Amino acid sequence: MDLVSLAVRSIFIDNMIFAYFLGMCSFLAVSKKVSTALGLGLAVVFVLSITAPVNWLLQQYVLREGALTWISAEFANVNLEFLQFIMFIAVIAGMVQLVEMVIEKFSPSLYGSLGIFLPLIAVNCSILGGSLFMVQRDYTLPQASVYGFGSGLGFALAIVALAAVREKLKYSNVPKPLKGIGITMLITGLMAIAFKSFIGIAV
Amino acid sequence: MKFLQDIFEKQKPHFEKGGKWEKFYYIFEAHFTLLFAPKDVTSKKGVQIRDAVDMKRMMMTVIIALLPTLIFGIWNVGHQHFLATGQEAATLLDKFAIGAYAVLPIVIVSYVTGLGIEFTFATIRRHPVNEGFLVSGMLIPLIMPATIPLWQVALATAFAVIIGKEVFGGTGMNILNVALTARAFLYFAYPGDISGDNVWTYFGDSLIGMSEPVQAFSGATPLAMAAADGISSFSNFWLSDAYTFQNMFLGVIPGSIGETSTLMALIGALILITTGVGSWRIILSVFGGAFLMGYLFNFIYDINYTGQLGTGVKIAFLLGTIILFIINQKFIKGELKAVIGVLAGMLIFTAVMLFSGAASEFMKVPAQFHLVMGGLAFGAVYMATDPVTASHTFQGKWIYGIMIGALTVLIRVFNPAYPEGIMLAILLMNVFAPLIDIYVVKANKKRRLSRATV
């Protein structure tokens, strides 16, 4: 049950976009069409749910202070935490390469419409954020996997909802200076107000 | 009427192209069309269908439907004032007088601020003045407590009209309900004045020599009480005279100006449905969703509290609901499919709750009470039905409505931070309404393509 409530938490309450405002660049840039947004959302779900457990293992058995004792007892004082960012990023970048190859192979049209934002998932802060939050909150391996998956799903939900709103917005008469990113920022703020309904829920 | 029309016709040349007040044409046009249907037709050729019921007339219908709640709200503010100050023997007129003294300034401030911004935008951006604010400007005061400072009303209205509506291009293009945006803004910006925890009773104004203004009145709304102290103190209060089902249905309880009375909201619903302005699907599904969710929570509480059900039965329940969901996806079509789909989703949620074994005291609140408590009826009738921000497809409307009802009860039960859920539930579903529509339309296309034989 702990895992279910963690999943609910990470999807709705600690939503990457509306609670932490992480990963805004791709959120704002790739939300013009629902189908593209769904593609990016699923890619983020995939990358997050792989990288969170992998990075957990990395943290547990390589990076953390005294983590290397499984090789030999003399490494008990070794602390590789200063490599944390670079290692996490390396794992994420590797995963993104994989996703990129898969998407290019199976859905060239989606690959085309995602464009530069697919490789840019590698530096999407919600993904690195997922790994860092997981370390900070001392999750166990199953918790980390669920957390990664849930955060990804929260991101996907947010970006698809925004894309639907923006498709509807095509018929609006938005003032010229606000067109594009400006109005999208405002919508994000309004959506965050609506998402506040979840903040404070005790699960 | 003829002489009014003459006045307008006489002034018209001044406002048209080349006239001295050309800039203000849309302000003139707004007043003219408020009173008369315009003569213009959109094209010179072909058949014209002219309907006197244009958008302005439609918005006026909503305002007429709002009048019962407004009048009752004014009376209730006065009534609560006399109850709280201990002056039982007040006449009807006294109550109305006090109520009007408290409520009318809020209405006026809301209309003046909103319409001022609306006219400014219309003049600068050269678009017709949008009628939507006639309704929003009435809704905003009705969802405010009577004690709200007027500057906050003005600020919230300005925020809602500019950020909630005008940046999208005006009426018909916004994504969140304008009135609810105003309230949510106040709710998060000035929680002290509108938190929903305390009873808002208008105590009067010492300036004009009414009774003593007491600032801290330590009552709580029924919802806040149920959330804070659990069912025991709740039901004690419940069974005392103040919060009976009947009182809450009639709305003779403290609360925001317009939203206490379920009865008045239902009268409004009758007007909206018979004139075809409001969607009966949404109204019905919000009430239905809330009732069912309340009922399911009673059920979960019973099972989890007594712990009689074995794991096997729970698994069977979960599997049963999933099978129901699949059967529904395969074999049922149209609006029924949407309804059963959402209901199956709620049942799956229930099954998960059964596994979790969670039991909160609030779950015990009888389902029918959820319908009359707080602003559920008001929100369901006047704000969920907002044609701009709701779902546009029939199936979408069912999903949208049921989800609002269910989420309202869910937030009430699970979120101790917010005793009332209808406002945030509607805002949240406003955000998802376009997505629902897109998928409903997509499913329709798919079904029709599968029937095509070419």
UniProtKB/TrEMBL annotation, chain A:
It comes from the Bacteria. Its EC number is 7.2.1.1. It is found in: Cell membrane; Endomembrane system. It is an enzyme of class 7 (translocase). The keyword Cytoplasm does not apply. Keywords: Cell inner membrane, Cell membrane, Ion transport, Membrane, NAD, Sodium, Sodium transport, Translocase, Transmembrane, Transmembrane helix, Transport, Ubiquinone. The keyword Transport applies. It is a multi-pass membrane protein. It catalyses: a ubiquinone + n Na(+)(in) + NADH + H(+) = a ubiquinol + n Na(+)(out) + NAD(+). The chain crosses the membrane at residues 6-30, 37-58, 82-103, 110-134, 146-165, 177-199. NQR complex catalyzes the reduction of ubiquinone-1 to ubiquinol by two successive reactions, coupled with the transport of Na(+) ions from the cytoplasm to the periplasm. NqrA to NqrE are probably involved in the second step, the conversion of ubisemiquinone to ubiquinol. Belongs to the NqrDE/RnfAE family. NCBIfam families: nqrE. HAMAP family: NqrE. Composed of six subunits; NqrA, NqrB, NqrC, NqrD, NqrE and NqrF. This is Na(+)-translocating NADH-quinone reductase subunit E. It comes from Mangrovivirga halotolerans. The gene is nqrE.
UniProtKB/TrEMBL annotation, chain B:
Its cofactor is FMN. Its EC number is 7.2.1.1. The keyword Phosphoprotein applies. Keywords: Cell inner membrane, Cell membrane, Flavoprotein, FMN, Ion transport, Membrane, NAD, Phosphoprotein, Sodium, Sodium transport, Translocase, Transmembrane, Transmembrane helix, Transport, Ubiquinone. InterPro entries: NqrB, NqrB/RnfD. It catalyses: a ubiquinone + n Na(+)(in) + NADH + H(+) = a ubiquinol + n Na(+)(out) + NAD(+). The chain crosses the membrane at residues 58-78, 98-121, 133-163, 248-273, 280-301, 307-327, 339-359, 365-385, 397-415, 421-441. The keyword Nucleotide-binding does not apply. Pfam families: NQR2_RnfD_RnfE. It is found in: Cell membrane. It is a multi-pass membrane protein. The modification FMN phosphoryl threonine is found at T221. Belongs to the NqrB/RnfD family. Composed of six subunits; NqrA, NqrB, NqrC, NqrD, NqrE and NqrF. NQR complex catalyzes the reduction of ubiquinone-1 to ubiquinol by two successive reactions, coupled with the transport of Na(+) ions from the cytoplasm to the periplasm. NqrA to NqrE are probably involved in the second step, the conversion of ubisemiquinone to ubiquinol. HAMAP family: NqrB. PANTHER family: ELECTRON TRANSPORT COMPLEX PROTEIN RNFD, NA(+)-TRANSLOCATING NADH-QUINONE REDUCTASE SUBUNIT B. This is Na(+)-translocating NADH-quinone reductase subunit B. The gene is nqrB.
